[in-house]
Amino acid sequence: MTTTRLDAPLKVTGRATYASDHTFPGLAHGYVVVSTIAHGEIESMDVTAAKGSPGVLAVYSPFDPLELRTPSTAFLGETWVPLQDREVGYYGQPIGFVVAETYEQARDAAMLVEVTYRRRPARTSLQDGLATAEDAPPAMDGSPPSLSVLADGVESIEDALAASPVVVDATYRTATQNHAAMEPHSAVAVWEDGTLTVHSGNQGSDLQAQELANALQVDPAAVHAVNPFVGGAFGGKGRTSVPAFLAAAAARALGRPVKAALSREQVFTATAGRAATVQRITLGAERDGTLVAIRHDSWSSTALDRSFVEPTSHGTSREWYSTRNLAISQKMVPLTISPTTFMRAPGEAPGSFALESAIDELAVALDMDPVELRLRNNSTAPPGRDLQWSSKHLDECFAIGAARFGWADRSPQGHTDGDWLVGLGTATAMFPALRFPATVGITLRDDDTAEVATSGADPGTGLLTVLALIGAESLDIAPERITPRLGDSALPSGGMSGGSTATASTGTAIMVAAPKAIDELLALAAAPGAPFAGRDVSYADGRVLADGGSMTFGEVLRAVGRASVSVTGSSAPGEEMTKHSFSSFGAQFCEVRVHRWTREVRVSRMLGVFDAGRIINRKAARSQLMGGMIWGVSAALHEGLDVDADGRPSNADLAGYLLPVNADIGEVDVALVEHPDTLHNSVGARGLGEIGIVGMAAAVANAVHNATGVRVRHIPITIEDLLVPPVRGS
Ligand code: MOS
C-alpha cells in the first residue's frame, strides 16, 4: 500500500490540536525557572519580588515544593521529578515554577526569582573522565557491559589481533545531541471531580498516565493522558516531561487548569538528549578481508544521575559482522550535563559512525572495495549465538544500492568536478527488530464502519494510518471504513512508540483482535432469531455469508438490534525469541562534494536501501527512512551541543545548534526490499523508524575520505577538519 497519512489534512491546515493549543476557562500559565550553574546546591531562593509581581498566583521551589514523588513504573523505571531537593546537577535544570494569570506575567515574574548557590566545580569533559570511567549497567538484554566471544584455543582478543595479518586501530568521537523536536515539551492539566486530564505530547499515553498517577500518588484510573498529535519525539518524549509533572501538580494545588511549556532554549537543558561518545575500535583481518577479530571499547557521557548510557558497542559490533573473535566494553563518565536518554537509534547511530568508519579504514588498508569487504563478513547469526537471523537480505540491499547509485564508477581516489572534490561512501545499517506487548480494541459498528483503537501515540511516524491499513486488511474492508484511534490513555494499552516497534506490536494485536470480532459477529448472525439462524456462516469482504445470501456486518448488527460489537486482542513477544535473531538491515550510500578552496562539504546525493520486512505504507516508510538519513547527515556535518568548561551550553538554541536545512540536503533516494518476516510477527513487518539514521554519518565521513584523502574520526565534521593536507587535486 502507499497511502497519504490520514491526519495529513489536519496537520497541514493547522487544525490538529497539539498539547499547548488547548485552553480552558480559568487557565493559569506556568513558567519553569532553571538553574544558572551546572553543579552545586541551592542555598536560598528569594521569591518575594516574583510573588508580588502582577498576576502571580504561586511560586514553587525546592523550599516550597509541589507535591510530587519520583514515579517508578514497570516499563520506564524511575523518572526524575523537579523541585524535590536542592541539588543542582546541570545548567538549565528546572528548579522553580511560577504560575500566573498570563504567560507573560509568569515569565516576567520568573526573571525576578533570586537564587543563591553553593557552587561545586562543573565536570564537562568526557575526555578528562576516561581514566576514571565506571562500568555501564548491563545492556537491555541483560548482557554485561564487557563481554567477549573467542574462538577455540584463543586466549584473549589481544592474541587474536596479534595474529591478524592486517590490523586497523582508531579512536572515534561523537557529539552530544539534543532532540530539538518541533513541538517543545508542554502540557495543559485540568482537574475535575478528582480526575486529572493532561494534554501533553508523549510517546505513550497510558505510560504517561501511569507515571503521572504514580508521581501524584493518585489512582491510575484518575489520570487521563491525551496526546492524539505529537510534534516529534525521537525518544525525547518517552518519559513524562517536566511541564507535565509541574502543570498537573500545580493545577491540583491551585484548583485551576494550568498550562506549562518549555522555551526552545529550555528544551536543550530541561529535557534529555544523546550522550557524547569516545570509541576505540581495533579490527584484525586476513589479507582477503575476512575478519579475525573485532575489539570495540566505548565510553559514553552520562549525567550525574547516570540516567542513560549510549550502548554503542553493544548496538553494533556485538551483532553486525561475522567474526571468530569479539570483545566489547561499555563504560560511562558521569558529568554535570543534562540527563541522557534514548534518542533515535540509541547506540546504533553513534556506534555505527565508529564501526563503519573503521570498516572503511580496513577496506583502504586492504585496497579492497568497501562493499565487497562488508559482504565478505556478512553474518548469518550474531557472533557467539546460534540463533540465525530470521530473514536477512543485506546482500540484496548492497547489490541494489550499488547498481542504483553508480557505485561501480567510484574510484578509490575520488574524482573532481571543477573546483569540487567528489567522493562516494557507503555503510551498513542495522537496527534490532523488537516488539512490545500491546492491546488493540476493535469495534464493528452498525453503520458498516469499524474502530481500531489503542492508547499509544503517533509521534509523526504514521502509526494512525498503519492502524487503519492493518485494520482494513484484517477485517477485509476498505481503509476508509476504519476509524483509527490513538493517543488516549483510556484506550486499550498500546505501549510506547519507541524502539521502532509500534507497527509490529500493534499490528500483531490487530491480527489477534480482528478474528475475535468476526467470530463474535458470526455467532450473532447465526443465533436463534438472527438472519442466519442455525446456518453455516462465514465472513469475507465485510459481509456475513451463508448459503443463498449475505449481509454486511452493519446489516447483521441492525437486524439483531446491536449498535456494535467490541473485542480486544493482545500480543507480546514470545517463543520466536528462542528461535531466531531479529534485525532490520540496510545499505547506505552517499556522494559528497568538498570545495577545493573553502573546504565546505555538500552531500549531493544519498541512497538508502532497506530490508525491514513487509512494508505497510510505502509512502510513510519512505518518509521515515528519509528523515533518518537526513538526521544522519545532520550528525555528520552539523549537530553538536557544545558545553563550556563551567557547564553552560554555548549553543543551546536553534541559532547556534546547527541543523541541516533544505539547501543542505540534495537528492535523497530510498529503496525497499520487501521480504515479509513472519518469523518475527504475523504482520511480517520489522521496525524502520530508526534504521534510517544508522550508518549515514559514517557513509558521509567515508565519502569525505574518498573525496579528499582526509580521514576525520569525529562528528560533526567541520571545515577546519579539512583545512589540512592531503586534499587531492589542489
Ligand atoms: Mo525512540 S529512541 O525509539 O524512543
Description:
The structure is a single chain. The chain is of the alpha+beta class and 730 residues long. It has 4 domains: 8-121 and 186-267, Aldehyde oxidase/xanthine dehydrogenase, a/b hammerhead (Aldehyde Oxidoreductase, domain 3, Alpha-Beta Complex); 124-177 and 273-382, Aldehyde oxidase/xanthine dehydrogenase, molybdopterin binding domain (Aldehyde Oxidoreductase, domain 4), CATH 3.30.365.10; 387-434 and 577-730, 2-Layer Sandwich (Aldehyde Oxidoreductase, domain 4); 438-572, Aldehyde oxidase/xanthine dehydrogenase, molybdopterin binding domain (Aldehyde Oxidoreductase, domain 4), CATH 3.30.365. A 7-stranded mixed sheet has the order 3-7-1-15-12-13-14, sandwiched between helices. A hairpin with a 5-residue loop joins strand 16 and strand 17. The longest helix is centred in the C-terminal third of the chain and has 25 residues, at 502-526. It is globular and about 80 Å long. The protein starts with 7 loop residues before the first helix and ends in a 15-residue tail after the last strand. The model has no long low-confidence stretch (mean pLDDT 97). It binds dioxothiomolybdenum(VI) ion. Dioxothiomolybdenum(VI) ion binds at residues 203, 234-235, 238, 342-344, 346, 498-500, 690. The site of dioxothiomolybdenum(VI) ion has 12 residues, from loops.
